[in-house]
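Lab meeting minutes (informal)
Scribe: AK
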Amino acid sequence: MAKLLTACAMLAVVSAGCSRTHEAATMRENKQSTSSEKASTREAAYEKATFAGGCFWGVESAFRELPGVVDTQVGYTGGTLDNPTYEDVCSHTTGHAEAVEVTSDPAKVSYEKLVEYFFDIHNPTTMNRQGPDVGDQYRSEIFVHSPQQERIANEVKQRLQNSGKYGKREVVTLIEPAPKFWRAEEYHQRYFEKTGQASCHVKQ
């Protein structure tokens, strides 16, 4: 009888231990699930914006310094060839622009602020040129992802034109619906961070 009682007591201890272990594992799973749901909710609230303003190395580098920007990637958009290479774009036969896709948290930086910043980091009065870089791939263009973005981009552009900052020069930045964005080759991504070189874009 004593042995039977001892065995039952040990079984109860083991059972209790297993129960606590299961509860702890369930709590960890619930916490992980909650964290994943929160992360997904935050990401769903993020906004995409696409800008072309000369060499995409410098445009990307500048946007990565802006608080509220959570991610960037450089690529090609606005052209006729699917999945173009850098060489294709440089041939001036595809119509693509070197562009930067910016992912931002609208709770920290508004789309209007992104557009104002874009105009501030390049010269919007030269259509197919930024400094020594000449060609249609270096054009000044905003690719909008919604009617609201289109309205804001046009308002900011007009406000800049009316400000007299550029005198009689016209702000020639194009504003068009965003077509397919093709991610550029990996060596182009965050180029200045990889090479340690200074950005080629400075505020106007």
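Next up, CB showed the second protein from the same session:
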Amino acid sequence: MGHESWDYIKKKIRKPCLNVGCGKYIFENVDNLDNIEFPKYPIDIKEDFTHSKIPDNTYNSVLLLNVIEHVSSPGIFIQQSYRVLKHKGILIISAPFLTGIHRQPEDFWRFTKEGLIFLCCSFGFKLKEIEGYGVKVLTKIEEEQMWTYYRGVFIK
């Protein structure tokens, strides 16, 4: 995750906040959850988010930062995010679109901007904002610009 991404996220977080699938990106004053422990990166909650025991309506923000592509059933992560968020809580999500495969441990999906909107709104979220970031790619089809990553903010 680039420095500009963290600056983007910091401005939007409302605490308490849950960082799902944090991997090596451990943030201070945030509950960092993953199902894999990295020795040098201590996490706060070790569990599989698809079967999370976190109570309903616990957090004001949930972060799914470049993790949804590693989940075989991404809808379950979106549904769980909605469940653990308080009323008017925010989901901050980022996902790759035009990037190479990166197994950590698996790599299942790529998401267009429209795909992220559809996925999140299918589980009750409302779109606040979405944008491309990373490297801009110009396609020959109608000279449309695409990005290597998309990130969005959705409201419960």
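CB comment: The two ends are 25 Å apart (CA to CA).
No objections, moving on.
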